[in-house]
Amino acid sequence: MKTHTLLMPLDMHLHLRDGVMLENIAPLSAYSFSGALVMPNLVPPVTSLEDIKAYKERIVAAVPNDYFEPYMTLFYKNYDKAFLESVAGHITAIKLYPAGITTNSEGGVSSFNVEEMRPTLEMMSLLGIPLCVHGETDGFVMDREAEFMSIYELLAKNFPKLKIIMEHITTKAAVDMLDKYENLYATVTVHHLIITLDDVAGGMLKPHLFCKPIAKRPEDREALLKVALEAHPKVMFGSDSAPHPQHKKESCGCAAGVFTAPIALQLLCDVFDKHDKLENLQAFVSDNAQNIYGICAEFKEVVLEKRPFVVPESYSGVVPMYAGETINWAIESVE
Ligand code: NCD
Ligand code: ZN
Asked: Which of 119, 168, 294, 317 is the most buried (most CB within 10 A)?
C-alpha cells in the first residue's frame, strides 16, 4: 500500500471559533496538525492583549491531549506603538479584513488610506509582525480579488519591510503578484486547488462549497496548482477551514465557509499524488510556513495511506467538504 509521511504539518489560516464549536472542532485540527494560525474574527473580534491570552487558553484547554500550537492573530485596526509593543510577543500576525467583506468582519478597514495606516504598519514592520490580508473589494463577486491587487501593490510599495500575506488566494492575478514584490506571500486552501465555480453553482447548488473568496475559473485553479505543486517558497498551506452549523449552511442565506480541517491532509495527498508531486507537499504544508513566519513547529509525524476513506456526514453538527463521499487517502497514524 502506498504511504506518505508528513512532518509537522501546519495550517496557516484556520477558523477555530469559540465555545462549544471550538471544543468540538479544535481537536480535529490538533490531531493531525502541529499548529495553526488562528483567525481572530470572533464576535466580538480579538482586539486586546486580554482577548489574545484568554482565547489562546480556551484553545489549549480544548485540545488537552495533543501537541498543537495555536499561533495567535489580532484583528487589524489602527493601533498605537505602545499597544503593538505589548502584544508583539503574544501574536504571530495581524489579520486585516475589509469591513463587511466576510463573516464577522464588520469592524474591519473601510478605506485603505495609507497615511492613516502608516503608523500601525510601520510599527508592525519594525516589530516584525506580518500582516495577513483578506484581499477582496466589494465589487462584482468574481472580480473582487483581482480588483484588490492595486491595494496589495499600494501596501507592498509603501511598506517594503512589512511581510504581507495574501490570504486564501483564488486567482491567477494574485499568483502573478507573488514574484512582483519581495514582501508579498500567500496562503492557498485545499478546496481552491480542487474546485471551480462550476462545482459550487454549475449544477445543483452546493452550499458546503460556498466560501469567500468564491472559487473561480479553471485557469485560476491551474495557476494556484502550479505554485502549490512546485511548493513556491512564498506560498504555504492555509485551509481557511471555516465551520458553520449545518442549519446556517443549508438555509436561504447560506453562511460562507468550507469545512475541511479533518480531511485537509488527505485531500492534499490526493492532489499532489495525482500530479506526481508528493515530494513537494512537505514544503507546501510545513517548511515554507516555518521559513516565512520564522517559527519552529512542534514535532508531529503523520503517515497517510492511499486507500478509500469515507468522509463522515458530519462532525458534531458541522458538514465537511465531501461529506459521505469516498476520498482516496486516509490518515494511518500520528506520532
Ligand atoms: C470565513 C469564516 O466563516 O469565518 N469564511 C469563509 O468563507 N472563508 C471567513 C473568511 O476567511 O473569509
Ligand atoms: Zn478565513
From this structure: 168
